[in-house]
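Hi all, long-time lurker, first post. I run a small reading group and we've been trying to get comfortable going from sequence to structure in the token notation. Rather than ask abstract questions, I figured I'd post a concrete chain and ask someone more experienced to write out its structure so we can walk through it together at our next meeting. Sequence below, copied exactly:
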Amino acid sequence: MNSRRDFIKKSGIGFAGLLITPSIFNNILLDSKQDIGIQLFTVREQLNQDVKLTLKKIADIGFKQVETFYGYGDKMSGKGFWGLDAKELAQLLKTYGLKSGSGHYNTTQYLTDGNTEVLKQQIEVANTLSQKYYTIPAMAPNVRQNGTVDGYKKMADLFNKAGELCKNNGLTLAYHNHAFEFATLEHKQTGFDILLKETDIKLLKFELDIFWVVNAGIDPITLFKQNEGRFAMWHVKDMDKTDNKVFTEVGTGRIDYKTIFENRKLAGNKFIFIEQDVIKKDPFESIAQSFSYVKQNLVK
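-- Answer (accepted) --
Happy to help. Here is the structure in token form:
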């Protein structure tokens, strides 16, 4: 990614001739520095079949960033990363000109018993891949199924502790939402409200899954306005125009991504990862279609 100095040099302008406000300049930088990423869960079956070919195809489409997932056993990703250890994957990503800004890590054990040993091992993996964010992909099963105010407060405490551990190891902790966190609990609170309130803004960022936010009936822009700067990453995936439970390629559904992307600075967005949980066409055609829409219409 280009530095601020590189941007000015390549634009052929200097500070003396820069007749735009700092806020506009920041928006230009956000756009010029935005690498479009993909959550690799989108092509999980293809990775299991041929990790090298799949990553090459991802790079050929134009993606520059990938978000990994790790710790889910043979069915999801085999040993390590589809038979590769972290060093081998890091080298393969480098070969294809890919970087990994974030990784999803299986934190079920930690969120259940508070044991940090697995976290420490996974943090080593994240650092080997030069990732910036260690991302908790889902809530503890008991809280997901039977969430309470106290349950979410306990999760917030565990997030803060994990966030401190990540910070001490050069990473930032993030949490990836689904729709259930927005269900109303006691005193008209939601689980997401509690996580926002009870976690340290310096220790936890959120990876906002736009699909699940809209599925829950929540306006993403309202979240940005109420919690400015907390949504460092987004999962960008679209929703079928007739069925809010069906995924579709970005730009073909009902989610107003143009307005959402206009508010990236307000959200604090640093990374975007295209994702589609279920695909009904050739997966590489699908992700190429979503990539093309994002590049041509959302990232200038």
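A couple of things your group might point at:
Residues 18 and 25 are 9 Å apart (CA to CA).
The chain has 16 helices and ten strands.
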